[in-house]
Specification:
The protein has an eight-stranded antiparallel barrel with strand order 1-2-7-5-6-4-3-8. With 181 residues, the chain is of the alpha+beta class. It has a single domain, classed as Cyclophilin-like (Cyclophilin, Beta Barrel), CATH 2.40.100.10. The longest helix is centred in the first third of the chain and has 15 residues. 19% of the residues lie in helices and 28% in strands.
């Protein structure tokens, strides 16, 4: 029953938002605006918008920052508590979108279809993260949008000082994510 409810939500969400939906990510470093690609990554965009509408990302952190690679967030509160998520979604990395500088993609575990809420923004071209085959190693990471303004904010975040496990020593806070119609 839960999977039917999730499927229903994903179908409704992809119909409610246009293929050119944008989000505004307000951080304590500035604002990042991202163009989502619901045409090429419909389930991933619907999943991301679901969490956004629920306020899930508000007051979370970029918990993993690696200069010359990516910045990752969307899973931990400002007090470092891991957030509960909905069920994982199917990987859509075979959609033709590439992990290039400024693209946003879903984070996941070693299991290809394990993405839930966490995402990352590529700070350089990361071709090794792209889809190559429907195998455990080849699935890659599903890109579902592109930064259209605020790449300077991303670049500022990527250079923040980090400690153990690539965690920023001072919090990089996602204060709120809003949908721009």
């Amino acid at each position: 029953m839960k999977s039917l409810i999730t499927l229903f939500f994903l179908l409704v969400a992809t119909q409610v938002y246009s293929a050119d939906t944008k989000i505004s990510m307000h951080t304590n470093f500035g604002t990042i605006v991202i163009q989502l690609d619901a045409e090429k990554a419909p389930k991933t965009v619907a999943n991301f918008l679901r969490y956004t509408k629920e306020g899930f990302y508000d007051n979370t952190i970029f918990h993993r920052v690696i200069n010359n690679f990516m910045i990752q967030g969307g899973g931990f509160t400002t007090t470092n508590q891991k957030k509960d998520t909905h069920a994982a979604i199917r990987n859509e990395a075979n959609n033709g979108l590439q992990n290039v500088r400024g693209s946003i993609a879903m984070a996941r575990t070693g299991e290809p279809h394990s993405a839930t809420a966490q995402f990352f923004i590529n700070v350089k071209d990361n071709g090794f993260l792209n889809y190559t085959a429907e195998t455990t190693r080849g699935w890659g990471y599903a890109v579902f949008g592109t930064v259209i303004t605020g790449m300077d904010v991303v670049d500022n975040i990527k250079t923040t000082k980090t400690g153990r496990n690539d965690k920023p020593t001072k919090p990089v806070i996602i204060e709120k994510i809003s949908i721009i119609q």
